[in-house]
Write a structure and sequence with these properties.
Elements lengths: L1 E4 L5 H15 L6 E6 L2 H14 L3 H22 L3 H28 L4 H8 L1 H16 L4 E4 L7 E2 L12 H14 L4 E5 L2 E4 L4 E3 L5 H12 L4 E5 L20 E3 H9 L11 H4 L5 E5 L8 E4 L11 E14 L5 H14 L4 E6 L5 E7 L3 H9 L7 E14 L9 H11 L4 E6 L5 E7 L3 H11 L5
Parallel strand pairs: 1-2, 1-8, 2-5, 3-5, 4-6, 8-10, 9-11
Antiparallel strand pairs: 6-7, 10-11, 12-14, 12-15, 13-14, 15-17, 16-17
Helix pairs in contact: 1-3, 1-6, 2-4, 3-4, 3-6, 4-6, 7-8, 13-14
The structure holds aspartic acid and magnesium ion.
The site of aspartic acid (ASP) has 12 residues, from strand 1 and strand 2.
Length: 458
């Protein structure tokens, strides 16, 4: 079971989540994975960069005091037993002491490496795990708090985006199995963080706690992974934009992955990888509506008929277009993507016409200037680079689209009938996903039009 963000925003919520664990731990062996309290990861990153730009010991003291207040208040509300409270507070005191030291170190040096950034950001999870575990103990359960490293999540040294090393499953199993089977305890593991073989803390990438949960589940051959969120599950479209959107009770790994890559921020895109080979289902559950069944993500083949199952939208995107006459495409393509990779631009979508005169690349709006500058150097009188801002990307996802004729036809004629102009289209041959770009002003309308066209609503 993984809890994060808003589900653990304060002491009251932490106690609520711990009670959920207690309820299900009666008849199951449970490993808990926690991420940081809502907003803490961002606050830590922000503090780290502030320490280099305007270093001041007073700022560090104030920041740490603020963190202390938040976490001690959480302990106060969540942990009901005085002895346990004193114990967890002394654990936290040591952590705050370390946090203060490292932040002061950064401000004196005026230098922040990727490695020290991972170390600083790890405090969010390392502070919450002992609090969550203490809460379970005060509810009468046996529990122990572990860091990702304690739990056996050994990674490479790619700080900020570390990957577990091969063989990690057997290490995790050897650490956690005895706790579950022999000691009958509930381990509470920090999500998001791992450790290198020589003992430095790493992180798995933003939102990585889901990934931690699935790595552990795969290592232990768990029956299910439960990701506790603030929503009932995966919806046919974001209810913020499409009021009659509906909960999807079952969805395949492939479809869920398409959605998570395309802006439906329901789970970390990498989180399904470890589970697919082992066919371990994921259940998305609502912390605030725990009796709802949620969405189950599994390898079950989807019934035919569900051609378009869900829609997602990425607002705030931009297109960079490279056009020219008679260039050697293989060569220029290699150059284009090398430049984008070197400038750390994430490519969301690509389209190329078979005339080979044109290549369109969609990037996040915040990357568009960087992408444009990276590619401008290709201009030579024949080749032109152009930027189109303010586009939205809509993606229609469904395994049933594969081999079903007419789906694209329905999507595009529905848009046409409603006067919505399409700027760019892409569909890979997995046929699980048709994506297209439109002007921002049409984004929500287009979402509703397609949702209606396929009767996805309630
Ligand atoms: N706390 C980390 C983050 O905000 C990891 C997570 O939330 O899963 O990115
Ligand atoms: Mg988070």
């Amino acid at each position: 079971m993984k809890f994060g963000g808003t589900s653990v925003k304060d002491g009251k919520s932490i106690l609520h989540c711990a009670n959920l664990v207690k309820k299900f731990a009666e008849n199951n062996e449970v490993v808990v994975v926690v991420s940081a309290m809502a907003g803490v990861t961002d606050a830590l990153l922000n503090a780290a960069s502030k320490c280099i730009s305007e270093s001041s010991a007073a700022y560090v003291k104030m920041f740490v005091a603020d963190m202390m207040k938040r976490h001690y208040e959480a302990v106060d509300h969540a942990v009901k037993n005085e002895d346990i409270k004193i114990k967890v507070i002394s654990t936290l005191e040591k952590l705050f002491d370390d946090l203060e030291k490292v932040l002061l170190g950064i401000s004196y040096l005026g230098e922040l490496t990727k490695r020290s950034e991972d170390y600083i950001v790890s405090f969010g999870e390392r502070l919450l795990a002992p609090i969550f575990s203490a809460t379970l103990i005060s509810l009468g359960l046996d529990s122990v708090a572990l860091t990702g490293g304690d739990a056996g999540i050994i990674t490479d040294k790619n700080y900020g985006r570390a990957k577990p090393i091969p063989g990690v499953y057997s290490i995790i199993k050897s650490r956690l199995d005895p706790l579950l089977r022999i000691k009958k305890t509930v381990p509470v593991v920090t999500g998001f963080i791992g450790v290198t073989e020589d003992g430095s803390i790493t992180t798995l990438g933003r939102g990585g706690s889901d990934y931690t949960a699935s790595i552990i589940a795969a290592a232990l051959d768990a029956d299910e992974v439960w990701l506790w969120k603030e929503v009932d599950g995966i919806m046919t479209a974001d209810p913020k934009f499409v009021p009659n959107s509906k909960l999807i009770p079952e969805i395949s790994y492939a479809e869920a992955m398409e959605l998570s890559h395309f802006g439906a921020k329901i789970l970390h895109p990498k989180a399904l990888e470890p589970l697919i080979a082992k066919k371990i289902p994921v259940r998305i559950k609502n912390t605030f509506n725990p009796d709802a069944l949620g969405t189950v993500i599994s390898d079950k083949v989807e019934g035919k008929g569900d051609v378009v199952k869900a829609l997602s939208i990425i607002e705030k995107s931009s297109i960079v277009n490279i056009s020219g006459a008679g260039f050697d495409f293989a060569e220029i393509m290699a150059d284009i993507f090398r430049r984008l990779a070197e400038n750390k631009v994430n490519v969301i979508m690509v389209a190329q016409s078979s005339s080979e005169l044109n290549l369109s690349i969609v990037v996040d709006a915040k990357d568009s200037e960087r992408a444009y500058n990276a590619l401008k150097g290709l201009e030579n009188g024949v080749t032109n680079v152009k930027k189109i801002e303010n586009v939205s990307i809509i993606s229609a996802v469904g395994a049933g689209m594969a081999g079903t004729p007419g789906v694209a036809g329905r999507i595009f004629s529905a848009l046409g009938k409603n006067g919505i102009n399409i700027v760019m289209i892409s569909q890979s041959c997995s046929e699980y996903n048709i994506s297209f770009a439109i002007d921002n002003k049409d984004g929500i309308k287009a979402l509703r039009v397609i949702h209606d066209e396929f009767n996805l609503g309630s």
